[in-house]
Amino acid sequence: MSVGLLPEGLRDRLPPHADALARLVWRALDVAQAWGYERVSPPLAEFEDTLVGRLKSSRPQDLLRVIDPVSQRTLALRPDITAQVGRIAVTRMAHRARPLRLAYGGPVLKLKATQLRPEREMMQVGAEIVGTDNIAAAREIVSLALTALERAGVTGITLDITLPDLVDTLAAGPFPIEAGRIDRARALLDAKDAGGLAAAGFDRYLPLIDAAGPFPQALDRLRAIDAGGVLASRIAGIEAITTAVAGKAALTLDPTERHGFEYQSWFGFSLFAEGVSGEIGRGGSYTVLHPDGREEPALGFSLYPDPLIDAGLGGKPRQRIFVPLDADAGAVEGLRADGWATVAALDGDDDAAALGCTHRFERGAVVAV
Amino acid sequence: MSVGLLPEGLRDRLPPHADALARLVWRALDVAQAWGYERVSPPLAEFEDTLVGRLKSSRPQDLLRVIDPVSQRTLALRPDITAQVGRIAVTRMAHRARPLRLAYGGPVLKLKATQLRPEREMMQVGAEIVGTDNIAAAREIVSLALTALERAGVTGITLDITLPDLVDTLAAGPFPIEAGRIDRARALLDAKDAGGLAAAGFDRYLPLIDAAGPFPQALDRLRAIDAGGVLASRIAGIEAITTAVAGKAALTLDPTERHGFEYQSWFGFSLFAEGVSGEIGRGGSYTVLHPDGREEPALGFSLYPDPLIDAGLGGKPRQRIFVPLDADAGAVEGLRADGWATVAALDGDDDAAALGCTHRFERGAVVAV
Asked: Which parts form a coiled-coil structure per UniProt (chains A, B) (predicted)?
């Protein structure tokens, strides 16, 4: 019988994982709220064409489509919430003062899984600042991402910083490359191919390869590259950002990393956690498009906490205590206030141990099962 | 330009409503967790045929369908989570000791809106006991639903109790009706059509019409009907359930109400809140179907909190305080610990009042804006 069989990439989250995920999301968003970020909650599906127009890292062919007999149009399930938040910022919240701080959390759906992430439905949690993308904003976004993870019980975090438009900036300035060859230089830098860079005549870009790796050495090597004011202001920016989060994460620099940052401007970052393969989040500076064509600077991050839960992070559930049929309601409420999950007997046969209780409430006392 | 235009029945939740909804859901599920309910989180979509087989109150034609090129089958977006929780209880959690207590919360999607509820995407939050449907279980489920609403800041609740299989039970016992005429009797009772009941020869059912209304009068009238043991045990059950929730809700009885309770067995209830039109939740006893054909008793409730949020319930957001660029990080953390939402200046032009701040943090002091 096929009952219980789910489509590839869609799954049931069972105890204790479902609870751990909800707790992680709640705690992360509770931190965002305390930092002045107001929550928005866009719908799970939109008109396909509206959604596609705002998606940056997803392509139309990555979308799960929904047939909507009511509108007689094709809807798409959102593969990303950031684009929806951008839409809200420039439409229904366009009149609100800037910087506009928004937070969000909810499921997203992708057409296809990847080898690293076999799930097609995943949780996305994030925060965005719209209207400001200066260093203070970057510092706040990075600090918020790390604090949210910390409060959610995630440890062993690595923050990997990148400068998405660095090659473009150098190529247009101190280390000239004609426009048609910039992609080639970028690909060689992505591959950390020193020989290829030299052979192609991109010698001046070679020191950028060595400027990847753990702080502070990598930043020192970036500082040693003589490219005038371009690097100086960026280094000052990175220093200001990383100083604010000292002790909250291991820091690495990958100045020319472009993969997944194609739509970021001067600043980007990835988040990793010990024992979890692949990114757990990412962020950076970008622009949102207004209906009148104007572009507005923005800066934000998204976390994808499912792999953290699969790795056993996200906090522990309450300990369970079995409560007999005739227990005093006030005393049971007291146990809950003390942090217990109370499991009430519903008939005489209920078995404390089988119901996962480590303790039993007996004549007013907490007794180990 | 159509940017910002969403499909009918799908909407953006903006501040402060998105936050209020998330807070209400979190608090309700936090209460369930403290009562020993473990959270499960089924996927947003399943194979259409699997989902349809378990849906009780939704029909296949009520589903939004998704084209899935990966499985090459039609998926359906869930219109209800209870059916998915039932599936989990009899498959992946079939081996777990009973009573199995499960809780859930997440969005559901319907093909069509109704006049009363124009939204097609709505939040559903609930808890189910699988394996026991006795009075103790009913008392716990009703208490949990009311406590969850109370903790979530919802006031003015009415609990309306119904006995879904009462007419069947009376018809098969003390007040005989041949099987083919039971639906007719039920329809007349639903319409509270005393004349029709008398004309159709269902005179003995007439007193049930008067047994609808506020407690304790309605229950007294039900008690006055001489139908032998059938009513006595039900009245004792209702008394045990309602005694446990005295003071938490206004109580009404509608013993023959069937609408929406077609799949409930001996006990059903609806929840209403002052100032909110229509039900905000419902629950009762039912059965879940195992893969081997066995039916297992269950009892639970679902809340649909969106209308509560639209009515302004669900608690207030943190008050916002503007924090200057050079503020001490420890002091700012202290403000958050005191319950403030801190809104940091990101550059010199940021305007406290425009950013929704009622206060400003100035030289270590909280000052009204």
From this structure: none
- Residue B50, annotated as binding a ligand: no
Cβ distance B1 to A291 less than 8 Å, yes or no, reads: yes
Q: Which chain A residues touch B121 with a CB distance below 8 Å?
A: 43-45
In three-state form (DSSP H/G/I as H, E/B as E, the rest C), the secondary structure along A243-300 is HHCCCCCEEEECCCCCCCCCCCCCCEEEEEECCCCCCCEEEEEEEEECCCCCEEEEEE
A282 and A327 together in one domain: no
Say which CATH number the domain at B27 has.
3.30.930.10
The tokens for B117 are 């509820």
Q: Residue A48 in 3-state DSSP?
A: helix
Convert the pLDDT of each residue in A8-45 to its tens digit. 999 999 999 999 999 999 999 999 999 999 999 999 99
Question: Are A142 and A282 members of one domain?
Answer: yes
Domain span holding position B186:
165-256
Answer yes or no: do B18 and B70 share one domain: yes
Q: Are B214 and B252 in contact (CB under 8 A)?
A: yes
pLDDT the model gives residue B58: 67
pLDDT in tens, A47-101: 998 888 887 766 777 899 998 998 899 999 999 999 999 999 999 999 999 999 9
**A210 and A332 share one domain:** no
Distance, CA of B355 to CA of B364 (rounded, Å): 20
pLDDT digits (tens, 9 = 90+) for A314-369: 778 899 999 999 899 999 999 999 999 999 999 989 999 999 999 999 999 999 99
Q: How many CB pairs under 8 A join A and B?
A: 271
Give the confidence band of A116 by pLDDT, cuts at 50, 70, 90.
confident
Between A58-67, B113-122, B177-186, B245-254, the lowest mean confidence (pLDDT) is in A58-67
Rounded Cα distance, A60 and A322, in Å: 52
- Tokens (6 digits) for B174: 């003390």
- Exposure string of A165-192, with b = 16+ CB inside 10 Å and e = fewer, is bbbebbbeeebebeeeebeebbebbeee
**B34/A341 Cβ within 8 A:** yes
Query: Which single residue is written with the structure tokens 């957001």?
Result: B317
Regarding whether B216 and B105 lie in a shared domain, the answer is: no
Asked if the C-beta of A150 comes within 8 angstroms of chain B's C-beta atoms, the answer is no
* ipTM of the complex as predicted: 0.94
